[in-house]
From TrEMBL:
Originating species: Cryobacterium shii
Record-listed E.C. numbers: 2.5.1.15
Needed cofactors: Mg(2+)
Domain Pterin-binding: 1-252
Similarity comment text for this entry: Belongs to the DHPS family.
Protein name: Dihydropteroate synthase
Length: 264
């Protein structure tokens, strides 16, 4: 899944794809690099970010989604807002990616149910302004797993088909660096819930732990690609990345090793 942030302020690529034309060109480039799905977002969720009105969010992303869907790309909409999810579904999106797992907007679950689309429920404890203060866990893997299971219950009660739900442990959202590493180390515990799992590590702060001090954000693309391989080995359904080419190459290596293993 290639990231397309149509925002002026996302943490790693804010402002780069803020115009409709630049956004469309970037989505086509990511597809050329091997993305199977483009995740289009119009509201930054970086720690400390403020909210954007649904009208502003939709004016940023709906023209982009409409054109990309017209060109046959598979689109996911990254939104907390049910009205934006419904508008994106009408514009041709095929996945709703809700980083709050339905907690931010009480109408989201019924919109997801009515749309019949794949719905990504990410682990979330609160909005960007306060999420760092909510990074307290007994056992982060057990706690995130239990909180995601509770979301699956609530979503299915609201009519979302279990078979349409994808789970995401929400790396970087109310998580300290050690929480992110523990979640990555135990990704198969999430796969054990019997639903597809996606992972969004791309360029996040915790990856700095794998790099020399004071290197730039783009240096995080290499550790991101390594995480993509680890996620794939744990059976992930998708990895959400900014640098699609690096992840595609890393996954090609894994596929070649896997096929050589089967040849024996
Ligand atoms: N991370 C971000 C945004 N959307 N969606 C899912 N499902 N999982 C994530 O980890 C995730 C997400 C934040 O990253 P960005 O600011 O680079 O878009």
């Amino acid at each position: 899944m290639g990231v397309l942030n149509v925002t002026p302020d996302s943490f790693s690529d804010g402002g780069k794809w803020a115009s409709t034309d630049a956004a469309i060109a970037h989505a086509l480039a990511l597809t050329g690099e091997g993305a199977d799905l483009i995740d289009v977002g119009g509201e930054s969720t970086r720690p400390g970010a403020g909210r954007v009105s649904p009208a502003e969010e939709q004016s940023r992303i709906i023209p982009v989604i409409t054109e990309l869907a017209r060109q046959g790309l598979r689109i996911s909409v990254d939104t907390l807002n049910s009205g934006t999810a419904a508008a994106a579904a009408a514009a041709g999106a095929s996945v709703i990616n809700d980083v709050s797992g339905g907690l931010a907007d009480p109408v989201m679950a019924s919109v997801a149910a009515d749309s019949g689309l794949t719905y990504v429920a990410m682990h979330w404890r609160g909005h960007a302004r306060k999420m760092d203060a909510l990074a307290r866990y007994g056992d982060v893997v057990a706690d995130v797993r239990a909180e995601l299971s509770a979301r699956v219950e609530a979503l299915t009660e609201a009519g979302v088909l279990r078979g349409n739900i994808v789970l995401d442990p929400g790396l970087g959202f109310s998580k300290l660096p050690e929480h992110n590493w523990q979640l990555l180390a135990h990704l198969t515990s999430f796969a054990d819930l019997g639903l597809p799992v996606m992972v969004g590590a791309s360029r996040k702060r915790f990856l700095a732990g794998a790099l020399p001090a004071d290197v730039g954000l783009s240096e995080r693309d290499l550790p991101t690609a390594v995480v993509s391989v680890l996620a794939a080995q744990a059976g992930a359904w998708a990895v959400r990345v900014h640098d699609v080419a690096a992840t595609r190459t890393a996954l090609n290596v894994l596929a070649l090793v896997d096929s050589a293993t089967m040849e024996l």
